[in-house]
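Narrative of accomplishments. A recurring question from our advisory board has been how the design workflow behaves on a single, concrete structure rather than in aggregate. To address it, we present the structure tokens for one chain from the evaluation set, followed by the sequence designed for it. No filtering or post-editing was applied between the two.
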């Protein structure tokens, strides 16, 4: 809370103060984009990354003549900042962030910074699971309808870079809890909260309520002219809502009960969306995205589209032809009658639950990586019903063994995507599915979840 007050009580530094110094910590997609926008706005910009900077980002900074450093944080070049934009991946407990907070220097996200320089309307989407799918689907529907819309946040080109180089009327932003933590004055016109399940608890003192509070920041600064779209079936969301008041108009979605206004599933398995506009209905059989979790994702995107008064025919077409995103329940190949599915983006237990819930055959499950304080018990019933073998893919698989040794006859340890794919192939029989849905972060053996998914797909294609 102190940080909230610190930001809101300080004036925003601007170049008119005589080239105000803006320091950017982290030179990934968001940091480099923020640096470009800051330079364009006349700030004295400096970029510092405690790790190495990827060659493509280094080249961009060099081409733009923006000073930077890597593999260190030089305090005298950072502590003189009027304001700091930090990468979502840097925790508040990092020594340099602690020092900046102690000094009273505002530390904000790239989204907060970029939001100052655009008049575009914002659709913000958050949740523990389904963010990327729902953000991509919403963008797909709006773009197909002919809207002038950008896609940013945790996905695609950085928001700041697009604000500097494009002129969109709308943005669809995928917002992680880490981004929301460093957003203060930024306002989302249409906010979507899909669900709240335990994730990243290592960043939140292992308290679910702290993580939930981050998710609810998506509604801060909203007014009666805005909308808050949420899942009425999600217990943590409903619990959090009881403790808060909301300025925006509330639009719930549910597959368990009827909501008007809002979205629900009727007795004939049709999604029904009712805002103030004409009702929208669509059979779940006609949705491009199948599985129970994707009914929720489609409902959320559909409510956004109806709020924007898009035509029902356009919505139906877009929701029926959307191509699933890479690394999220992505079909890879069918080899000897065995289906291989890449769900590398499943970096928490809840995502893996959704993946298993949508499986219709016996499964050889590839699990493992960096465990973020996972509780695997929610998988127990699905593992008993559907999983014939588990292939562990990680440096430390002890907790997976503890969770499932008594439940699954075969659990094998592997240390590469190639080994995992090969072992899983030999454990599976015709009609089975080999599912990479790790429930863990990827940083022990891979650069990120994309790298893990790409290596898995390459390994499958070599079988």
């Amino acid at each position: 809370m102190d940080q909230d007050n610190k930001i809101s009580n300080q004036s925003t530094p601007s170049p008119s103060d005589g080239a105000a110094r803006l320091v950017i910590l982290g030179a990934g997609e968001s940091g480099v984009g923020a640096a470009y926008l800051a330079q364009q706005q006349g700030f004295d910009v400096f970029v510092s990354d405690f790790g190495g900077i990827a060659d493509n980002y280094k080249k961009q900074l060099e081409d733009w003549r923006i000073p930077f450093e890597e593999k260190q944080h030089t305090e005298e070049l950072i502590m003189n900042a009027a304001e700091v934009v930090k990468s979502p991946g840097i925790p508040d407990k990092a020594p340099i962030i602690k020092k900046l907070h102690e000094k009273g220097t505002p530390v904000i996200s790239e989204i907060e910074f970029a939001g100052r320089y655009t008049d575009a309307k914002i659709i913000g989407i958050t949740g523990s699971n389904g963010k990327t799918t729902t953000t991509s689907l919403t963008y797909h529907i709006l773009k197909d309808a002919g809207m002038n819309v950008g896609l940013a946040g945790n996905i695609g080109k950085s928001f700041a870079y697009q604000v500097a180089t494009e002129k969109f009327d709308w943005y669809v932003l995928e917002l992680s809890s880490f981004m929301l933590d460093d957003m203060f004055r930024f306002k989302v016109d249409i906010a979507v909260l899909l669900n709240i399940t335990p994730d990243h608890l290592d960043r939140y003192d292992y308290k679910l309520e702290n993580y939930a509070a981050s998710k609810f920041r998506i509604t801060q600064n909203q007014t009666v002219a805005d909308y808050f779209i949420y899942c009425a079936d999600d217990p943590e969301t409903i619990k959090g809502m009881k403790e808060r008041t909301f300025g925006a108009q509330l639009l719930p979605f549910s597959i368990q009960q009827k909501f008007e206004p809002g979205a629900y599933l009727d007795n004939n398995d049709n999604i029904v969306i009712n805002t103030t506009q004409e009702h929208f209905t669509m059979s779940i059989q006609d949705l491009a995205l199948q599985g129970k979790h994707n009914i929720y994702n489609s409902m959320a995107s559909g409510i956004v589209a109806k709020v924007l008064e898009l035509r029902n025919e356009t919505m139906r077409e877009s929701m029926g032809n959307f191509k699933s995103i890479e690394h999220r329940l992505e079909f890879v190949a069918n080899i000897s009658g065995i289906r291989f599915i890449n769900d590398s983006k499943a970096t928490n237990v809840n995502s893996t639950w959704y993946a298993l819930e949508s499986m219709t055959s016996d499964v050889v499950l590839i699990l493992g990586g960096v465990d973020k304080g996972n509780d695997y018990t929610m998988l127990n019933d699905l593992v008993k019903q559907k999983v014939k073998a588990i292939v562990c893919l990680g440096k430390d698989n002890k907790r997976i063994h503890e969770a499932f040794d008594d439940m699954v006859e075969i659990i094998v340890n592997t240390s590469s995507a190639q080994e995992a794919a090969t072992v899983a192939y030999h454990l599976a029989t015709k009609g089975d599915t080999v599912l990479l849905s790790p429930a863990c972060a990827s940083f022990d053996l891979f650069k990120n979840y994309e790298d893990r998914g790409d290596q898995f797909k390459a390994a499958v294609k070599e079988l």
